[in-house]
Structures are given as C-alpha cells and as structure tokens.
Amino acid sequence: MSVTDPQPPAPDAHADAAQEALHDRIAADSLTTRRDYLRIVATVSGGLAVGGIGVASGILHRHGDSTGAPEPKRIADRIEPGESLAFRYPGDEDRAIAVRMEDGTLAGYSAVCTHLACAVLWRKERGSEGELYCPCHEGVFDARTGEVTAGPPPRGLPKVILVEEVDGSVWAVGTARSGESLVEGFCRQQGDDRPGCPGFGAGAPAHKPAGPGAQQTRSGPKPAERSERT
C-alpha cells in the first residue's frame, strides 16, 4: 500500500487579493501614523526652540523693556508678611508677582521665567525666605534679589518697583530690567533729572507727577529704595 502526501488546496485568487489589499492598507496606515507623529514632534520641538531663542536673544517682549514711564497702579490694599500676590504690570499682558517676606521686605518681579517664559511662582516654605520657582524646568530665583540660584534660566528676573503708602496700600510705579537696580530702572523711566539720579541738578526741568499714585515718585528713586528695605 502506498502512502501519498495530501495535496494542498488550490490557491484562492480572491483570498490572495484580499490579503494583499489588507497588507497594503496596514502599511499605509502605519506610514501615515509615523508621518503624523514626526510632524507633531517637529512642530512642538520647533516651537520650543523658537521660543527659547526669542527669549534668550531679546526678540520677545520682556518685562522692563519700555523706556517710557508706566502709569502707577494700585495692586493691593495691603500685603501681609508671608503673603504673595499675582498681578499684571505694566501692561495687561505682563504677569508679575509681589511677595512680602516674614521680615517685612516687599519685593516685586516679573512672573515670566527668563528661560522659556513659563510662569514663576513663590514657594514660601522653601528655606528661610522662600523662593521664586519655575516648575517647567526647575528654575529657581532668590526671593530677595530675583537672581538665579538654580536651574537653566540665563539671567535674573526683571523687577517691579513697589512702594507702600501710609494706609498700607501697595503701588507698582515702574520696572527695572534684569540686572538693573531699582534706582537705575526708576531713573531711566522717570527721568535722569530726579533727585538721587545721575542727572539731578544739571539744570533740566523736573518732571511733574501725573496719574493716581504719582505722588510716590515725587522724590525720585527714594520709593524704589524703600521697596528694597521694607
């Protein structure tokens, strides 16, 4: 008795065509998915790169860049020790933060990180005086000076010049660029002929204060000095 191998069934032309079409469709879908993924990654990475280059090179707007004097703005009726306040100054698009440390020191800064423009927060519980912190890339700034203490930010935070009235109200009256003192920022914006500024006494007419809270700028950079001490 002979044993013969079973004969394979005859190929089904319709089944082969369907299987080939399915394979082509899966391959096309995979290619589309890969292309979409790469396009999304490239777009996001490119956006971050452009934003970083813009902030670092000064193309994008920075706090304190304006040369004119911003209008004084009342930001709070009172800020108690250990409190912070988010506000907008000098423009509605400019995020800022004021902090009152436990020893009474009142300081104001831009709340835009100098690395990639993420929001800066105050962490009161960090250290003896708290810290200004950017959660995006772990940037840390000194709460008393605004200078960089950790992370990738390339420079300190621009400052907001704050003064406090006898009734406890707090006013923003100007800005200072990163690396610029409060007095330098005040004199640049309010006029170099103010008392305490390098041009005072050179014969230029004194500027007249204008707008609500302007009486606080009457004696030149003294309010700025006060905001550093109080």
UniProtKB/TrEMBL annotation:
Stretches assigned to the Rieske domain: 71-172
PROSITE patterns hit by this protein: RIESKE
Ranges of Low complexity composition bias in the record: 203-214
Gene Ontology CC entries for this record: membrane
Molecular function in Gene Ontology: 2 iron, 2 sulfur cluster binding; metal ion binding; monooxygenase activity; oxidoreductase activity, acting on paired donors, with incorporation or reduction of molecular oxygen
Family matches, as InterPro entries: Rieske_2Fe-2S (IPR017941), Rieske_2Fe-2S_sf (IPR036922), Rieske_Fe-S_prot (IPR014349), Rieske_Fe-S_prot_C (IPR005805)
Key word Hydrolase present: no
Keywords noted in UniProt: 2Fe-2S, Disulfide bond, Iron, Iron-sulfur, Metal-binding
Protein name: Cytochrome bc1 complex Rieske iron-sulfur subunit
Organism field: Streptomyces sp. R44
